[in-house]
Design brief:
Blueprint lengths: L1 E2 L14 E3 L14 E3 L14 E3 L14 E3 L13 E2 L2 E3 L8 E3 L2 E3 L8 E3 L2 E3 L13 E3 L16 E4 L3 E4 L4 E4 L13 E5 L4 E4 L4 E3 L3 E3 L3 E3 L13 E4 L5 E4 L5 E3 L4
Parallel strand pairs: 1-2, 2-3, 3-4, 4-5, 5-7, 6-8, 7-9, 8-10, 9-11, 11-12, 12-13
Antiparallel strand pairs: 13-14, 14-15, 15-16, 16-17, 18-19, 19-20, 21-22, 22-23
Length: 257
């Protein structure tokens, strides 16, 4: 079914599809059970089966993009022209533009544009822009991607350049990050070990303002704390002495050897 000036004009081998809008589906071929809504939506598309394109030129010139949904101006335009873009959701102006791959989710303006790969989730303006790789998760609020372009990257995590990680290496970093393949010089980095978890820091690691790790353990002077049942506490006071408090609240001065 077609509705709109030149909608479905010049189509071939198209069946069970709906084309609504000025020039929607013009010169499309090989469409089956697809929905094209918007001016020039799906124009020149090929083998765009069981898919949806909504928006001005959404799905324009898309190739081999089955079971996909493109919503927004230019969303999914030229998608799949190299190796297909199947089972993908692209929502936002320019989302999925010239993208290749499958099983991807792209939400945001220019999100996932020029990207390639499988099983990626990109959310935010230009998240995953021009990125090649698999199994990446990026949620960006900075209007650009942290994932490097021109290099295949996989199993990376980026949450607004604040929490980043390498899933393959089981590394998670929090703080002031660096864009080199998401292996940053972080404020705090959590690295699993065989029997424990290591905390790596580019500066001091501060624990509730009472202890700092920086070449040694520095304890801030305090007063006698409130006891905690079944726990012992070690601390220092203004008298320059070191103390241990047992779970019952009894304070013991630690003698220096």
């Amino acid at each position: 079914a077609a509705m709109g000036y030149q909608a479905a004009s010049g189509t071939s081998e198209c069946r069970d599809s709906i084309m609504i809008g000025y020039g929607a589906g013009t010169n499309a071929s090989g469409l089956e059970a697809s929905v094209l809504v918007g001016k020039y939506a799906g124009q020149n598309s090929y083998t765009f089966n069981k898919s949806v394109a909504v928006g001005w030129q959404a799905g324009y010139n898309a190739k081999d993009s089955d079971y996909s949904t493109f919503i927004g101006t230019f969303a999914g335009a030229h998608a799949g022209t190299t190796s297909g873009l199947n089972h993908t959701l692209a929502v936002g102006s320019g989302a999925g533009y010239y993208a290749q791959g499958k099983h991807n989710v792209m939400v945001g303006g220019d999100c996932g544009a020029w990207s390639s790969g499988v099983d990626n989730i990109y959310i935010g303006v230009r998240a995953g822009f021009h990125t090649s790789g698999n199994h990446n998760l990026e949620i960006s609020t900075c209007c650009d991607t942290l994932l490097p372009s021109g290099t295949i990257v996989s199993n990376k995590l980026n949450l607004s350049e604040t929490i980043v990680g390498d899933i393959s290496a089981k590394r998670l970093s929090i703080g002031d990050v660096n864009a080199t393949h998401l292996s940053p010089n972080a404020t705090l980095e959590i690295v699993p070990k065989t029997t424990d978890v290591a905390l790596l820091a580019s500066g001091d690691v501060n624990v509730s303002g009472l202890a700092t790790l920086h070449g040694g353990l520095a304890l801030k002077e305090t007063t006698t704390p409130t006891a905690l049942a079944d726990h012992g506490k070690i601390y220092t006071k203004a008298d320059n002495k070191l103390y241990f408090q047992d779970g019952a609240g009894t304070e013991h001065e630690i003698a220096f050897v």
